[in-house]
Amino acid sequence: MFLALYGVSRFLVEFVRLPDEHIGYLAGGWLTEGQALSAPMIIAGGALLVWAYRVRAPSGNFAIAQ
Known about the structure:
There is one protein chain. The chain contains 2 helices and no strands. By secondary structure, the protein is mainly alpha-helical. The longest helix has 23 residues, at 33-55.
């Protein structure tokens, strides 16, 4: 979850930050390199969340009632 939320926050912050002068915007006049590098983090974080919810292995962080 941290990876996905960190990627989303970085992506959103890049909208208010000016891109580096020597790089500029990459696509369509709005996509910066920081946003392009944040997209794989969002995708990987989402994929890890989906995988974790599908596996549903017990974490061992619970007390067994006797």
